[in-house]
Amino acid sequence: MLPLIGIAVLVLGFAVRLNPLAVIVAAALTSGLLAGMAPLAVIAHLGKAFNDSRYVTVAFVAVPVIGLLERHGLQARARMRISQLATATTGRLLILYLGLRQITAALGLIALGGHVQMVRPMLAPMAEGAAQARLGVLPQPVLSLIRAHAAATDNVGVMFGEDIFIALSSILLIKGFLHLEGVEVAPLQLSMWAIPSAIAAFLIHGARLAWLDKRLERLAAESADAERQAGS
Fold first, then answer.
1. What is the reported pLDDT for 174?
2. Which DSSP category does 232 fall into?
3. Which one, out of 21, 103, 219, 223, has a CA that is 20 to 30 A from the CA of 111?
4. Over the stretch 89-105, which tens digit does the pLDDT of each residue have?
5. How far apart are CA 166 and CA 106, in angstroms?
6. How many Cα neighbours within 13 Å face the side chain of 164?
7. What CA–CA distance (Å, rounded) separates 41 from 39?
8. Per-residue model confidence (pLDDT) at position 70
């Protein structure tokens, strides 16, 4: 059970907001050393895992494209379009995106969303525009709160939607681990058991997003009161 202390290191590091890369390396070293591995062996395993997953750096190819689109007004256009919808609110927009993200991830279309491709250039500006259309100009801390919820919505949607897709690497990883432990489970069974988790994640995070609208109204009112008091 001692190698599980690495999980505690991971949780503690993220809780105190240390550098994520340093936290992951520290957690891996903790688990590896407590499992009896030599330090160089742990580092070698980390390097092999990174090399095997190097395809994730393909996302960096999209960065110049997104930067060019933003330079030509993509964020401003997205913010303006959503502000023209009278019924749009930040919470409703993010709930809609959460559902779409889960459905597309369940179909294996993981690359349709993401922080680089969708959250920064479109989703976050649209969420900000919906809030500002209803509440007026918002202070920077409130805008940061909206951006954080937009990023979290993408994370929750893809994390709890992708396991429904039977041919995804996470399902194969779970099946391989259970096979090594002597537990035989068909990939279809794993996918089916992921559906209740996805539904629960949608309901829980959807409730948080619905509450976000009320929270934004309260923060906007507090900001307006503070400005009036400062002006008087």
1. 77
2. -
3. 21
4. 899 999 999 999 999 99
5. 9
6. 20
7. 5
8. 62
